[in-house]
Amino acid sequence: MRLVILDNYDKVSEWAARYIKRRILDFEPGPDNYFTLGLPTALPRNHPESYHSFMWHNFFKHIDILPENAHLLDGNAEDKVAECEHFEEEIKKAGGIELFMGGIGPDGHIAFNEPGSSLVSRTRVKTLNQDTVEANARFFGGDISQVPTEALTVGVGTVMDAREVMILITGAHKSYALYKAIEEGVSHMWTVSAFQMHPKTIFVCDEDATLELKVKTVKYFKGLMTLHNKLLEEKSVEPSSKKQRSN
Amino acid sequence: MPGNKTVSDSHIFQFKNCRILRNHSIFVEDLWVRDGKIIDPEKLFYVEKGYADFQIDCKNAIIAPGFIDVQINGGFGIDFSSNFDDIEGGVQKVAKGILQHGCTSFCPTIISSSKEVYKKVLPKIKIKAGGRDGAEILGVHVEGPFISKEKRGAHLLENMATYDNGFSDVLDMYHDISSVRIVTLAPELPRSLDVIREFVDRGVVVSLGHSMASLSQGEEAVKHGASFITHLFNAMLPFHHRDPHLVGLLASYKHPPDLRIIYYGIISDGIHTNPCAERIAHRTHAKGSVLVTDAVAAMGLPSGTHRTGTQMIEIQDKRALIAGTDTLCGR
């Protein structure tokens, strides 16, 4: 695992953005060579706080991606199960996820894989737990009754299949989850811990998120910052991954 | 990048690198248009899976709705009140000329004139939709002649008139009011309340101005249907703390409950009104604020002396004065 520790939220955002940009450029994507970027999903479209709106305003409208290449889970789908299965199909068709980027909840969940989710789960409908519903209330004017209680989400297994996983964690309220995710064992109660079993995971966090970690851990990874920053400049050291992709 | 043609074959235009006016603020955002209508790019992206056929770089310009000028006496050498040779052509010249200033609709304004002039001019100015060839003509604004001679400003004394016989005098003066949409009158003149009622019943906006009216006279006029004030502060008695006169209408509680809001024109050139006076009016009643140019024939012409129909106008710096005097004559 790589653990990149930066001063604050803005620095984390910038570093992560640069990293993703570097990865995409190094990959040299094209019409026959998709760089598939995975991002977490969920609330119904049309709602101003839906991920569709969020993704449009914060990402898609600023880049020249073709609409047909943007695949979002549709929370309004009639047959939600079919929608999830279809999503998994789309991922396979695009050649698998090259890089998945996500955050974690205070309960250590990745996407909406709440504590107790199977660590080999696939894209499916999940009922949200109370903590998550409360955390999401801020998007609905603080009115808990408005918050959706179900969401479509990629599974832990789905993300584990990605060739690289990047998790962003900021704030003191996430620090305990980060501790559980990387200093304790793999547990379905802290689903992010599953990535201890993934060959290429990178956690990017701010100082506050490290508050529950051992000083030793933090010192070790901070010492590697020069190496981490090199990742932003050089070509990726896995040219073979490109050849695997073009079938 | 062609749009997906499931909804329409028309081209999609994306205006980039621009600022738009929305919900009372200006912010950076692209504007997407198809078939002359603004479309929702999010819907286009997710539902139609479409994108822009043409992208236009606006170089940080602001995209805003076209301006509406309800008081403009002419421009580019044309004076609506005294250009009789080619009236339609004159109006068209102004309509075209103001487009590049962002004005897409206007009310050609006729200042206090004689019966003969109204007979000649009014029938020739038609309400007309706008387009590439010129701004929309909303209708005529007849500013006078039923105004106060003490507050006539640049209007000629011999053209002042009254309507002691009520609306029949009005029809006698203007002759054809079919394209009149705004009338400026002084509500202290006898029979004003009847005349105002008649105009309002015919769908004409009654604007109070060039007047010596007190606040209560103004309030009566509003009760009878007046809904606009012509160039606030100019050609009326000033705000006085014991009788704010027409300026007081901005804060009166005596307006009828079904009157939506009282609007007031403001000539915001920094010369006709002191910016502080403007701000006071705006802070008192922002919703009613309507910017007007009150532009004269000299608008669009360079510095110097110009003949505009009945008067000589002198342009000094940014001021247009009646030649030989210090009286401002609109802008």
Report the biggest beta sheet of chain B as strand number plus sense, adding barrel if it closes: 9 strands, parallel
User: What's the CATH C level of chain A?
Assistant: Alpha Beta
Number of domains of chain A: 1
CATH class of the largest domain in chain B: Alpha Beta
Architecture of chain A, CATH level 2?
3-Layer(aba) Sandwich
Q: Could you tell me the radius of gyration of chain A in angstroms?
A: 18 Å
Query: Please, what is the oligomeric state?
Result: heterodimer
InterPro entries (chain A): Glc/Gal-6P_isomerase (IPR006148), Glucosamine6P_isomerase (IPR004547), Glucosamine6P_isomerase_CS (IPR018321), NagB/RpiA_transferase-like (IPR037171)
Family (chain A): Belongs to the glucosamine/galactosamine-6-phosphate isomerase family.
Subunit structure (chain A): Homohexamer.
Organism (chain A): Lingula anatina
Structural notes for this entry:
The complex is a heterodimer of chains A (247) and B (331). Chain A has a single domain (2-27, 36-232), classed as Rossmann fold. In chain A, 33% of the residues lie in helices and 13% in strands. Chain A is built from nine helices and seven strands, in the order βαβααββαβαβαβααα. Chain A has helices at residues 9-27, 51-58, 80-93, 130-136, 156-160, 175-182, 215-222, 225-230, 240-245; strands at residues 2-6, 37-38, 99-103, 124-127, 150-153, 165-169, 201-206. In chain A, the strands form two sheets. A five-stranded parallel beta sheet of chain A has the order 1-7-6-3-2. In chain A, strand 6 (165-169), helix 6 (175-182) and strand 7 (201-206) form a beta-alpha-beta unit. With 331 residues, chain B is of the alpha/beta class. Chain B has two domains: 12-63, no CATH class; 67-292, Alpha-Beta Barrel (TIM Barrel), CATH 3.20.20. Chain B has seven helices and 21 strands. Chain B has helices spanning 41-48, 87-99, 115-121, 167-174, 192-201, 215-223, 275-284; strands at residues 12-16, 19-22, 25-28, 31-34, 37-38, 54-57, 62-63, 67-72, 74-75, 78-79, 103-111, 136-137, 140-143, 180-185, 205-208, 228-229, 263-267, 289-292, 304-308, 311-316, 319-322. Chain B is globular. Chain B starts with 11 loop residues before the first strand and ends in a 9-residue tail after the last strand. The chains are: A alpha/beta (247), B alpha/beta (331).
